[in-house]
Amino acid sequence: MTASTTAHPEATSALGRLPQAPPCAMVLFGANGDLSHRLVVPALYNLARAKRLSDDFRLFGVDRASDETGGWIQSLREGLERFATDSSASESDEVDPDVWGWLASRMTYVQADLTESDSYIRLRDRLADVDRAAGSPQNRLYYLAVVDRLFGGIVDQLGAAGLTRQEERAWRRVIIEKPLGHDLDSAKALNAKLSATLQEDQIFRIDHFLGKETVQNILALRFANGLFEPVWNRDHIDQVQVTVAETVGVEHRAAFYERTGALRDMVPNHLFQLLSLMAMEPPTSFRADPIRDRKTELLQMVRLPAMEGPSPDVVRGQYGAGSVLGAPFRAYRAEPGVAADSPVETYVAARLFVENWRWAGVPFYLRTGKALARRWTEIAIRFRDAPVALLRSCDLQGSVPNWLVLRIQPDEGLSLEFGAKRPGPRLELGAVQMDFDYRRYFHSPPATGYETLLYDCMIGDATLFQRGDTVEAAWQVVQPVLDAWSERMPTGFPDYTAGSDGPTSGDALLARDGHAWRALP
Ligand code: BG6
Question: In this predicted structure, what is the pLDDT of residue 304?
Fold first, then answer.
């Protein structure tokens, strides 16, 4: 069954319906980097195309290379063209010259050494020009698209140069993106460092999963429908499975990944976003802090995973050679830049419990891995079985589990799996599915996910950004795992074949509860 195959009559460009963002001067640190080329500037371009940026928007690109504004703009344009051709986040593979011209005319490159205070004085002068031209202090958005070890230093320097001081009707905001610490202590240290200069409401911590429409939809689904919330608890739900499966391997990021591994890279951030939105209590309102309060509380109620004994609550794996989507795939340890005996995990699976009235006793199984059979992200909720024994006398054959599946990517939507009587004289059950396909129904225009995040930062809506205490609550949960793993080397790596559904240790984690992972579709 299909909910609808035609577009909703009101389907229009979501961005186009928003009011225009207030004027601001955006300073992009790391202007020559991959993040700027691949996501930030394409997202600004999409915002400009939807006419959501103010005429007084300005973009200052800051980086080390002694480039000129012209060269920088040219390389961004090439990045945008590559992006438009390769990705599903652009409506066409042509860059609209008028839109690009509009954006490019607002761009200036500033060469700077980010560790030198002089650079910030020069930047201050450039920003003062903007204020002078506008006749009043302008809003400023500092986007730190740089490696995380520079976050603290840049914010210090911005503060010392007076560039973070807010004035009446002129805000100063800072965007940073993961890694937000490498463990609980470093996450706390980063928060302390940032808050020495900035108020919490000036810090916008991106988790790009929150830019995904279907992740945001979890809240709408749960709290704007009368149907789901009454059954969203331990009385009706038997288990929850959160899967973030990737087909890519480590790609060109071996240096980063060898220090990070799957747990740090994906769990305290992306997987916990999915977990907390799925499991949090209803917020008192749909504003940023009530929602972030509930997410933080949820993470604080996750029982710390037990890591001792033969059946720990979190297991790891690493891919060996195999074939992914029909193409040969080399082992993680054979990737350039990876140690030949690397103990770094490329797969992790966890069995967690939330200790509150709603969820006591319900296992939440989380898994993520690279070089798996399919790229697939979903939250699958399994409802308790019907007491079919009562129906014995009516000769019911078979049993069909009830799953509600929230598909996050690449195929965005929702499906409900249940049993229905097969046609015919016997009372036999068949498994059927009701399906809602997000894109087909709403015809949403392609986007990077960063459009919403940048726009929300400009209008001061922090709902989709991580608060400092939420980040710490997440690290608190994974810290026992980091501790256990730092003491015990993994054995038997590699332990799953590239292109499979993951290692047997991941299966064993569920088997001990009499459960099994849903197969990757
Ligand atoms: C990033 C991780 O944060 O998220 C990557 O560092 C991972 O390792 C990526 O591949 C997944 O995001 P997406 O949006 O491609 O699913």
Answer: 98
Ligand 1 atom index nearest CA of 269: 3
163 C-alpha to ligand 1 centroid (Å): 32
Ligand 1 mutation pick, 215, 265, 372, max ligand atoms within 8 A of CB: 265
pLDDT number for residue 378: 97
Averaged over 77-102, what is the pLDDT?
Answer: 80
What is the DSSP code (8-state) at residue 460? T
Considering Cα of 326, then 248, then 44, then 72, what sign does the dihedral take? negative
Mean pLDDT of the chain, nearest integer:
92
Range 281-303 average pLDDT: 97
Asked whether 246 lines ligand 1 (CB < 6 A), one says: yes
Nearest alpha carbon, ligand 1 atom 6: 265
Structure tokens at 18: 């928003």
Residue 372: CB atoms within 10 A of its CB come to 26
Mean pLDDT score, 311-321: 97
Q: What is the pLDDT of residue 5?
A: 36
Give percent of the chain with pLDDT exceeding 70: 93
Enumerate residues 6+ apart whose C-beta is below 8 A from 10: none
Query: What is the dihedral sign for C-alpha 140, 146, 149, 150?
Result: negative
Report whether 38 contacts 83 (CB < 8 A): yes
Cis omega (within 30 of 0) for bond into 328: no
Pairing outcome for strands 403-409 and 413-421: antiparallel
Rounded to 10 deg, the angle between the 41-49 and 69-86 helix axes is: 80
CB 112 within 8 A of CB 125: no
Q: What pLDDT does 438 receive?
A: 87
Atom 13 of ligand 1, nearest CA residue = 209
Which residue puts its alpha carbon closest to atom 8 of ligand 1?
265
Residues 6+ apart with CB under 8 A from 129: none
The model's pTM: 0.93
CA of 363 from ligand 1 middle (Å) equals 25
